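**Entry details**
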Amino acid sequence: MRTLLLSLFLVSLALSCQKKADQAAESANAAELAYFGESFAPATPVASSQLPAQMNQNQELANIQVEGQVLAACQMKGCWMTMPLADGQEMRVTFKDYGFFVPKDCAGQTAIIQGKAYYDTTSVEDLRHYAVDGGMSEDEAAAKYTEPEVSISFEATGVALKPADKSTAE
């Protein structure tokens, strides 16, 4: 009987220590995030590649968190960024009320964004503007964008960037 009680105590102690270690690791990971806009507690974000499957053509998803790699950011101010969706499509992320910016060199980093996802039609003029802000020449942008695009867009109230993996940077 004593052996059983001692075994249960040791298992309980080990599980308690593991839970504290897991909580400490989560806190350390959250502390490593760089926040822009409103800070938020990362919950269980949807992978950016899975977002189209969760939306209907006429649907808006408010107060959602999405995680994915930053493909590009505005090279003028950091006032927008793009993230991948399914099938090679991209989602443009803008920032609520033009109220904050992200680093211009954040491409390649993983971001967790909070805000609303929605379908939007982007005019030819805006597509060309974004392309030039992203580093494309005006002639290239004019040749590439001749029709408006309907796609998923995202208005972020906050962005959390994970630090770049130092092992891949070397």
Q: What stands out?
A: DSSP finds five helices and eight strands in the chain. Residues 51 and 85 are 7 Å apart (CA to CA).
